Amino acid sequence: MIKHLSISQLDTYGRCGEVYRRRYFEGEIIPPGLPARIGSGVHKGAEVNFKAKITTGQDEPLDVIQDAAAEAYTKELGKGVFFSPEEAPGAKLAMAEGKDTVVSLATLFRRDLAPQIQPLLVEEKVIIDIPGVELPVVTILDCYTQTKALRDLKTAGKKWAEEKAHSSHQPTAYREAIKTVTGEYPESICFDVLVSSKTPSLQTLPTFRNEDDLTILIRKFNLMLAGINAGIFPPAEPGSWMCSP
Predict the structure, then answer these.
(1) Strand residue runs (E) in the chain
(2) Predicted TM-score (pTM) of this structure
(3) β-strands 188-195, 149-156 pairing
(4) Who is most buried in 51, 76, 82, 105, counting CB within 10 A?
């Protein structure tokens, strides 16, 4: 039986209950695709920068951030990457190009995003107890700033639709995590999306959460737990990108 919840669990169960069952009950873990490995590399570069900046008040040199991101990306590749049969022939080239993307996005981060932020908490693991949910919820905060801004870093191949920021469950849980750590809610919330388009760009999407959003999150967690306890794991629709042999 699972001992804690997370937003990634909730999202996985919602997309495909069978994937959830195989992963969390059978231990059948399929490596993520290349975009996730790219994101992990860029996140590490940002983490190295912000953890140093908490102490120094200054951003790290560009080459330090680039090297940290590239090294983390290489380590992530060593854990495995999922390629579909159609993608497999070009996997080696794709992984090499992925490293270029990581360095490019790390450069964009250092130039356009990092100077805006003086961090207070970085990659902070916070376990929250949400009233009405029987299991604790584990969160990992990307960055909380001295100006009381909750910022979540993402990487993407194209710009997000604005609705994506407003519909995500992550800010709702992270908002509660900030309250747990600091005793107060953040004054602002946003997603910082590093877009790996032909000319890489930064997209910052403000969003907002309140008690109504928390009520919805509680209901979704409880529906998920009810399904799990009843042994119900609804599979994705045939033809869904989540569905595979």
Answers:
(1) 119-128, 137-145, 149-156, 188-195, 201-207
(2) 0.94
(3) parallel
(4) 105
